[in-house]
Amino acid sequence: MKRRLIRRWGCALLSGSMLLSACASTDYGARAVGSQGPATTPQLQTLEANLRYQYDDLEQRVRRSGRLVDDPALDAMMRRIGCEIAGEFCPELRFYILETSEFNATMAPNGMMLVNSGLLLRIEGEDELAFVMAHEFGHYFENHMFERIAAVRNANAMGSTLSWALVFAGAGALATLGYLPAMAGALEFSRDQEREADLFAARFNNEHNYNAAAGVRAWENLRAELTASSNERTRRAVTRGSMFSTHPLTEERITYLTAAARPDGPGPSDKAAYRALIRPHLSRWLELEVAQRDAGATLVLIERMAQQGTDLGVLEFARGEVYRVRDEAGDAELALAAYQRAAEQADANVAVWRQIGVMQQKLGAPQEAGAAFARYLELAPDAPDRQLIASMLAGLQTSSGGE
Q1: Are the C-beta atoms of 99 and 67 separated by less than 8 Å?
Q2: What is the pLDDT of residues 131-141, one digit of tens each?
Q3: 3-state helix, strand, coil in the chain (%, to 5)
Q4: Which DSSP letter does residue 123 get?
Q5: Which whole number is the average pLDDT over 19-32?
Q6: Is 27 helix (H, G, I), strand (E, B) or coil?
Q7: Residue 195 to residue 202: CA distance in whole angstroms
Q8: d(CA 36, CA 50)
Q9: Within 10 Å of residue 8's Cβ, how many Cβ atoms?
Q10: Is 1.20.950.20 the CATH classification of the domain at 280-401?
Protein backbone atom coordinates (compact mmCIF):
# COMPACT_ATOMS: atom_id res chain seq x y z
CA MET A 1 0.00 0.00 0.00
CA LYS A 2 2.78 2.43 0.97
CA ARG A 3 4.66 1.67 -2.26
CA ARG A 4 1.55 2.42 -4.33
CA LEU A 5 1.10 5.71 -2.46
CA ILE A 6 4.68 6.73 -3.16
CA ARG A 7 4.30 6.00 -6.86
CA ARG A 8 0.95 7.80 -7.06
CA TRP A 9 2.07 10.91 -5.18
CA GLY A 10 5.48 10.96 -6.84
CA CYS A 11 4.11 10.78 -10.38
CA ALA A 12 1.32 13.25 -9.72
CA LEU A 13 3.54 15.82 -8.08
CA LEU A 14 6.33 15.43 -10.62
CA SER A 15 3.79 16.16 -13.34
CA GLY A 16 2.38 19.10 -11.38
CA SER A 17 5.80 20.53 -10.62
CA MET A 18 6.86 20.22 -14.24
CA LEU A 19 3.76 22.18 -15.23
CA LEU A 20 4.59 24.77 -12.57
CA SER A 21 8.16 24.93 -13.83
CA ALA A 22 6.92 25.43 -17.37
CA CYS A 23 4.59 28.23 -16.26
CA ALA A 24 7.32 30.07 -14.33
CA SER A 25 9.22 31.37 -17.34
CA THR A 26 13.01 31.38 -17.27
CA ASP A 27 13.37 33.27 -20.55
CA TYR A 28 14.76 36.76 -20.00
CA GLY A 29 15.45 37.35 -23.68
CA ALA A 30 18.49 39.14 -25.07
CA ARG A 31 20.01 42.08 -23.20
CA ALA A 32 19.24 45.62 -24.33
CA VAL A 33 22.03 48.18 -24.72
CA GLY A 34 22.31 50.28 -21.58
CA SER A 35 20.35 47.89 -19.37
CA GLN A 36 23.38 47.27 -17.14
CA GLY A 37 25.60 50.21 -18.00
CA PRO A 38 27.43 52.18 -15.30
CA ALA A 39 24.95 55.05 -15.62
CA THR A 40 21.85 52.90 -15.10
CA THR A 41 20.23 52.02 -11.80
CA PRO A 42 18.14 48.83 -11.79
CA GLN A 43 14.73 48.97 -10.14
CA LEU A 44 15.02 48.24 -6.41
CA GLN A 45 13.93 44.91 -4.93
CA THR A 46 14.35 42.96 -8.15
CA LEU A 47 16.61 40.01 -8.90
CA GLU A 48 18.47 42.16 -11.42
CA ALA A 49 19.11 44.91 -8.88
CA ASN A 50 20.17 42.45 -6.22
CA LEU A 51 22.73 40.77 -8.47
CA ARG A 52 23.91 44.06 -9.90
CA TYR A 53 24.71 45.50 -6.48
CA GLN A 54 26.35 42.26 -5.30
CA TYR A 55 28.59 42.14 -8.36
CA ASP A 56 29.39 45.83 -8.12
CA ASP A 57 30.61 45.12 -4.59
CA LEU A 58 32.56 42.06 -5.78
CA GLU A 59 34.17 44.10 -8.53
CA GLN A 60 35.41 46.64 -6.01
CA ARG A 61 36.88 43.83 -3.90
CA VAL A 62 38.56 42.37 -6.97
CA ARG A 63 40.10 45.75 -7.75
CA ARG A 64 41.47 45.98 -4.19
CA SER A 65 42.59 42.35 -3.99
CA GLY A 66 46.15 42.84 -5.21
CA ARG A 67 45.66 39.86 -7.55
CA LEU A 68 45.03 41.79 -10.77
CA VAL A 69 47.70 41.69 -13.46
CA ASP A 70 48.76 45.22 -14.34
CA ASP A 71 49.94 45.06 -17.94
CA PRO A 72 48.89 47.84 -20.34
CA ALA A 73 49.66 45.74 -23.45
CA LEU A 74 47.54 42.80 -22.30
CA ASP A 75 44.80 45.13 -21.11
CA ALA A 76 44.74 46.85 -24.49
CA MET A 77 44.50 43.53 -26.33
CA MET A 78 41.61 42.39 -24.17
CA ARG A 79 39.79 45.70 -24.55
CA ARG A 80 40.24 45.66 -28.33
CA ILE A 81 38.96 42.11 -28.72
CA GLY A 82 36.21 42.59 -26.15
CA CYS A 83 34.85 45.70 -27.83
CA GLU A 84 34.97 44.01 -31.23
CA ILE A 85 32.79 41.27 -29.77
CA ALA A 86 30.48 43.53 -27.75
CA GLY A 87 29.96 46.27 -30.33
CA GLU A 88 27.55 48.86 -28.95
CA PHE A 89 27.70 47.19 -25.52
CA CYS A 90 31.40 48.06 -25.17
CA PRO A 91 30.95 51.16 -22.94
CA GLU A 92 29.20 48.95 -20.37
CA LEU A 93 32.08 46.47 -19.98
CA ARG A 94 35.25 46.30 -17.85
CA PHE A 95 37.99 43.73 -18.42
CA TYR A 96 40.38 42.38 -15.78
CA ILE A 97 43.14 39.74 -15.66
CA LEU A 98 43.10 37.78 -12.40
CA GLU A 99 46.33 36.06 -11.35
CA THR A 100 45.28 32.46 -10.70
CA SER A 101 46.28 29.19 -12.32
CA GLU A 102 42.73 28.03 -13.08
CA PHE A 103 41.79 27.76 -16.78
CA ASN A 104 38.73 29.98 -16.66
CA ALA A 105 37.05 33.24 -17.58
CA THR A 106 33.75 34.63 -16.39
CA MET A 107 31.45 37.55 -17.04
CA ALA A 108 29.16 39.04 -14.44
CA PRO A 109 25.76 40.59 -15.21
CA ASN A 110 27.09 44.03 -14.20
CA GLY A 111 29.53 44.03 -17.16
CA MET A 112 32.69 42.81 -15.37
CA MET A 113 34.72 40.23 -17.31
CA LEU A 114 37.48 38.34 -15.51
CA VAL A 115 40.06 36.35 -17.48
CA ASN A 116 42.38 34.16 -15.42
CA SER A 117 46.12 34.17 -16.01
CA GLY A 118 45.93 30.35 -16.17
CA LEU A 119 43.82 30.70 -19.30
CA LEU A 120 46.13 33.29 -20.88
CA LEU A 121 49.08 30.98 -20.21
CA ARG A 122 47.43 28.06 -22.02
CA ILE A 123 45.95 29.66 -25.12
CA GLU A 124 48.25 30.22 -28.08
CA GLY A 125 46.82 33.16 -29.97
CA GLU A 126 44.30 35.97 -30.15
CA ASP A 127 41.79 33.77 -31.97
CA GLU A 128 41.51 31.47 -28.95
CA LEU A 129 41.17 34.45 -26.62
CA ALA A 130 38.47 35.89 -28.90
CA PHE A 131 36.57 32.61 -28.72
CA VAL A 132 36.71 32.52 -24.91
CA MET A 133 35.72 36.16 -24.52
CA ALA A 134 32.89 35.78 -27.06
CA HIS A 135 31.66 32.75 -25.11
CA GLU A 136 31.52 34.82 -21.91
CA PHE A 137 29.87 37.75 -23.66
CA GLY A 138 27.31 35.31 -25.04
CA HIS A 139 26.29 34.51 -21.45
CA TYR A 140 26.01 38.23 -20.72
CA PHE A 141 24.06 39.05 -23.89
CA GLU A 142 21.57 36.21 -23.39
CA ASN A 143 21.03 36.99 -19.69
CA HIS A 144 22.02 33.44 -18.80
CA MET A 145 22.72 34.12 -15.14
CA PHE A 146 19.23 35.46 -14.51
CA GLU A 147 17.72 32.55 -16.44
CA ARG A 148 19.83 30.05 -14.52
CA ILE A 149 18.73 31.44 -11.17
CA ALA A 150 15.09 31.27 -12.31
CA ALA A 151 15.61 27.64 -13.35
CA VAL A 152 17.14 26.75 -9.98
CA ARG A 153 14.26 28.47 -8.18
CA ASN A 154 11.81 26.39 -10.20
CA ALA A 155 13.82 23.29 -9.44
CA ASN A 156 13.84 24.08 -5.72
CA ALA A 157 10.06 24.53 -5.76
CA MET A 158 9.64 21.24 -7.61
CA GLY A 159 12.04 19.39 -5.33
CA SER A 160 10.44 20.77 -2.15
CA THR A 161 6.99 19.69 -3.30
CA LEU A 162 8.11 16.19 -4.18
CA SER A 163 10.07 15.82 -0.94
CA TRP A 164 7.00 16.88 1.04
CA ALA A 165 4.94 14.30 -0.82
CA LEU A 166 7.40 11.53 0.00
CA VAL A 167 7.28 12.42 3.70
CA PHE A 168 3.48 12.51 3.60
CA ALA A 169 3.46 9.09 1.95
CA GLY A 170 5.58 7.66 4.76
CA ALA A 171 8.89 7.61 2.83
CA GLY A 172 10.72 10.24 4.84
CA ALA A 173 14.09 8.55 4.29
CA LEU A 174 13.68 9.19 0.56
CA ALA A 175 12.62 12.81 0.92
CA THR A 176 16.01 14.28 -0.02
CA LEU A 177 15.80 12.38 -3.32
CA GLY A 178 12.95 14.66 -4.28
CA TYR A 179 15.52 17.28 -5.25
CA LEU A 180 17.44 15.04 -7.63
CA PRO A 181 15.25 15.10 -10.76
CA ALA A 182 14.53 18.79 -10.24
CA MET A 183 18.15 19.83 -9.87
CA ALA A 184 19.22 17.56 -12.72
CA GLY A 185 16.78 19.43 -14.93
CA ALA A 186 18.11 22.81 -13.81
CA LEU A 187 21.68 21.77 -14.50
CA GLU A 188 20.77 20.36 -17.90
CA PHE A 189 19.39 23.86 -18.55
CA SER A 190 22.83 25.16 -17.53
CA ARG A 191 24.57 22.79 -19.97
CA ASP A 192 22.27 24.05 -22.72
CA GLN A 193 23.38 27.58 -21.92
CA GLU A 194 27.03 26.53 -22.24
CA ARG A 195 26.33 25.09 -25.69
CA GLU A 196 24.52 28.30 -26.65
CA ALA A 197 27.48 30.41 -25.53
CA ASP A 198 29.93 28.10 -27.33
CA LEU A 199 28.00 28.42 -30.58
CA PHE A 200 27.70 32.21 -30.09
CA ALA A 201 31.52 32.31 -29.89
CA ALA A 202 31.91 30.03 -32.92
CA ARG A 203 29.66 32.32 -34.97
CA PHE A 204 31.67 35.35 -33.89
CA ASN A 205 34.96 33.79 -34.99
CA ASN A 206 33.38 32.59 -38.23
CA GLU A 207 32.10 36.08 -39.07
CA HIS A 208 35.24 37.99 -38.08
CA ASN A 209 38.89 37.66 -38.87
CA TYR A 210 39.56 34.86 -36.40
CA ASN A 211 40.23 31.20 -36.97
CA ALA A 212 36.97 29.31 -36.60
CA ALA A 213 38.62 26.23 -35.08
CA ALA A 214 40.16 28.20 -32.20
CA GLY A 215 37.63 26.88 -29.71
CA VAL A 216 38.35 23.31 -30.77
CA ARG A 217 42.12 23.83 -30.33
CA ALA A 218 41.65 25.32 -26.87
CA TRP A 219 39.53 22.38 -25.72
CA GLU A 220 41.80 19.78 -27.31
CA ASN A 221 44.82 21.24 -25.53
CA LEU A 222 42.96 21.35 -22.23
CA ARG A 223 41.77 17.76 -22.75
CA ALA A 224 45.41 16.66 -23.21
CA GLU A 225 46.32 18.23 -19.87
CA LEU A 226 43.34 16.77 -18.03
CA THR A 227 43.93 13.32 -19.48
CA ALA A 228 47.54 13.38 -18.25
CA SER A 229 46.63 14.76 -14.82
CA SER A 230 48.17 13.15 -11.76
CA ASN A 231 44.77 13.53 -10.10
CA GLU A 232 42.53 10.52 -10.75
CA ARG A 233 39.33 12.52 -10.27
CA THR A 234 40.49 15.05 -12.85
CA ARG A 235 41.24 12.27 -15.36
CA ARG A 236 37.82 10.72 -14.83
CA ALA A 237 36.11 14.06 -15.37
CA VAL A 238 37.33 14.12 -18.99
CA THR A 239 35.30 11.08 -20.02
CA ARG A 240 32.57 10.66 -17.42
CA GLY A 241 29.43 12.73 -17.28
CA SER A 242 27.42 13.57 -14.21
CA MET A 243 23.86 14.64 -13.69
CA PHE A 244 25.36 17.51 -11.70
CA SER A 245 27.81 18.66 -14.39
CA THR A 246 27.05 22.21 -15.49
CA HIS A 247 29.17 22.04 -18.66
CA PRO A 248 29.03 19.68 -21.65
CA LEU A 249 31.71 17.02 -21.61
CA THR A 250 34.95 18.04 -23.31
CA GLU A 251 34.51 15.43 -26.07
CA GLU A 252 31.01 16.68 -26.78
CA ARG A 253 32.17 20.28 -27.01
CA ILE A 254 34.96 19.37 -29.41
CA THR A 255 32.48 17.52 -31.62
CA TYR A 256 29.90 20.28 -32.00
CA LEU A 257 32.50 23.06 -32.24
CA THR A 258 34.30 21.17 -35.00
CA ALA A 259 31.01 20.95 -36.89
CA ALA A 260 30.36 24.68 -36.37
CA ALA A 261 33.78 25.87 -37.61
CA ARG A 262 33.83 27.44 -41.07
CA PRO A 263 36.44 25.53 -43.13
CA ASP A 264 37.40 28.46 -45.39
CA GLY A 265 38.26 30.96 -42.64
CA PRO A 266 41.71 32.39 -41.82
CA GLY A 267 44.43 30.24 -40.27
CA PRO A 268 45.44 30.38 -36.61
CA SER A 269 46.62 33.65 -35.10
CA ASP A 270 50.32 34.51 -34.81
CA LYS A 271 51.61 32.38 -31.92
CA ALA A 272 54.92 34.21 -31.68
CA ALA A 273 53.23 37.61 -31.33
CA TYR A 274 50.96 36.30 -28.60
CA ARG A 275 53.83 34.62 -26.74
CA ALA A 276 55.72 37.92 -26.81
CA LEU A 277 52.77 39.59 -25.05
CA ILE A 278 52.65 37.10 -22.17
CA ARG A 279 56.45 36.60 -21.94
CA PRO A 280 56.92 39.07 -19.04
CA HIS A 281 54.61 36.89 -16.94
CA LEU A 282 55.75 33.39 -17.94
CA SER A 283 57.95 32.71 -14.92
CA ARG A 284 55.33 33.80 -12.42
CA TRP A 285 52.43 32.02 -14.13
CA LEU A 286 54.40 28.79 -14.45
CA GLU A 287 55.35 29.07 -10.79
CA LEU A 288 51.62 29.13 -9.98
CA GLU A 289 51.12 26.01 -12.09
CA VAL A 290 53.91 24.14 -10.29
CA ALA A 291 52.32 25.07 -6.98
CA GLN A 292 49.19 23.11 -7.98
CA ARG A 293 51.23 19.88 -7.64
CA ASP A 294 49.65 18.25 -10.67
CA ALA A 295 52.85 17.07 -12.34
CA GLY A 296 51.17 15.14 -15.16
CA ALA A 297 49.08 18.06 -16.41
CA THR A 298 51.82 20.68 -15.93
CA LEU A 299 54.41 18.63 -17.83
CA VAL A 300 52.03 18.34 -20.80
CA LEU A 301 51.51 22.11 -20.73
CA ILE A 302 55.26 22.82 -20.59
CA GLU A 303 56.03 20.40 -23.43
CA ARG A 304 53.37 21.95 -25.65
CA MET A 305 54.65 25.46 -24.96
CA ALA A 306 58.25 24.35 -25.61
CA GLN A 307 57.29 23.19 -29.11
CA GLN A 308 57.34 26.84 -30.21
CA GLY A 309 61.10 26.80 -29.64
CA THR A 310 61.21 29.96 -27.54
CA ASP A 311 61.43 30.74 -23.81
CA LEU A 312 63.25 27.44 -23.24
CA GLY A 313 65.22 28.75 -20.28
CA VAL A 314 61.99 29.61 -18.46
CA LEU A 315 60.18 26.45 -19.56
CA GLU A 316 63.00 24.04 -18.71
CA PHE A 317 63.40 25.67 -15.31
CA ALA A 318 59.67 25.12 -14.70
CA ARG A 319 60.02 21.51 -15.85
CA GLY A 320 62.81 21.02 -13.32
CA GLU A 321 60.63 22.53 -10.61
CA VAL A 322 57.82 20.07 -11.41
CA TYR A 323 60.16 17.12 -10.90
CA ARG A 324 61.75 18.64 -7.80
CA VAL A 325 58.36 19.23 -6.15
CA ARG A 326 57.00 15.80 -7.13
CA ASP A 327 60.13 14.14 -5.68
CA GLU A 328 59.42 10.56 -6.78
CA ALA A 329 62.03 7.93 -7.64
CA GLY A 330 64.24 9.25 -10.45
CA ASP A 331 62.86 12.80 -10.23
CA ALA A 332 66.08 14.29 -8.85
CA GLU A 333 67.93 13.17 -11.99
CA LEU A 334 65.11 14.47 -14.23
CA ALA A 335 65.06 17.79 -12.39
CA LEU A 336 68.85 18.17 -12.68
CA ALA A 337 68.76 17.46 -16.42
CA ALA A 338 66.00 20.04 -16.93
CA TYR A 339 67.84 22.67 -14.90
CA GLN A 340 71.03 22.02 -16.88
CA ARG A 341 69.15 22.47 -20.17
CA ALA A 342 67.71 25.71 -18.82
CA ALA A 343 71.18 26.97 -17.85
CA GLU A 344 72.28 26.68 -21.49
CA GLN A 345 69.63 29.18 -22.63
CA ALA A 346 70.07 32.94 -22.88
CA ASP A 347 66.80 33.54 -20.99
CA ALA A 348 67.76 31.34 -18.02
CA ASN A 349 67.01 32.73 -14.59
CA VAL A 350 70.07 32.88 -12.32
CA ALA A 351 68.07 30.80 -9.81
CA VAL A 352 68.71 27.81 -12.05
CA TRP A 353 72.27 27.59 -10.67
CA ARG A 354 71.01 27.43 -7.12
CA GLN A 355 68.63 24.60 -8.07
CA ILE A 356 71.41 22.74 -9.91
CA GLY A 357 73.43 22.97 -6.69
CA VAL A 358 70.53 21.62 -4.64
CA MET A 359 70.03 18.66 -6.98
CA GLN A 360 73.75 17.87 -7.23
CA GLN A 361 74.00 17.90 -3.46
CA LYS A 362 70.98 15.61 -3.20
CA LEU A 363 72.53 13.21 -5.72
CA GLY A 364 75.81 13.05 -3.78
CA ALA A 365 77.99 15.23 -6.01
CA PRO A 366 79.42 17.87 -3.60
CA GLN A 367 82.02 19.32 -5.97
CA GLU A 368 79.44 19.89 -8.72
CA ALA A 369 77.03 21.31 -6.15
CA GLY A 370 79.68 23.70 -4.87
CA ALA A 371 80.52 24.89 -8.38
CA ALA A 372 76.82 25.58 -9.07
CA PHE A 373 76.35 27.47 -5.79
CA ALA A 374 79.46 29.54 -6.52
CA ARG A 375 78.13 30.40 -9.97
CA TYR A 376 74.81 31.45 -8.44
CA LEU A 377 76.49 33.78 -5.96
CA GLU A 378 78.62 35.25 -8.74
CA LEU A 379 75.59 36.01 -10.92
CA ALA A 380 73.31 37.13 -8.07
CA PRO A 381 75.46 39.07 -5.59
CA ASP A 382 72.40 40.70 -4.03
CA ALA A 383 70.27 37.55 -3.85
CA PRO A 384 68.01 37.51 -0.75
CA ASP A 385 69.18 33.98 0.09
CA ARG A 386 72.87 34.80 -0.43
CA GLN A 387 73.79 34.17 3.20
CA LEU A 388 72.13 30.75 3.20
CA ILE A 389 73.74 29.64 -0.06
CA ALA A 390 77.15 30.95 1.05
CA SER A 391 76.81 28.90 4.23
CA MET A 392 75.90 25.79 2.22
CA LEU A 393 78.86 26.38 -0.08
CA ALA A 394 81.21 26.77 2.87
CA GLY A 395 79.93 23.53 4.32
CA LEU A 396 80.53 21.71 1.05
CA GLN A 397 84.08 23.11 0.77
CA THR A 398 84.90 22.09 4.35
CA SER A 399 83.51 18.62 3.80
CA SER A 400 85.41 18.23 0.53
CA GLY A 401 88.68 19.45 2.10
CA GLY A 402 88.43 16.99 4.91
CA GLU A 403 88.09 13.96 2.66
Answers
A1: yes
A2: 999 999 998 88
A3: 70, 5, 25
A4: -
A5: 52
A6: coil
A7: 10
A8: 12
A9: 12
A10: no
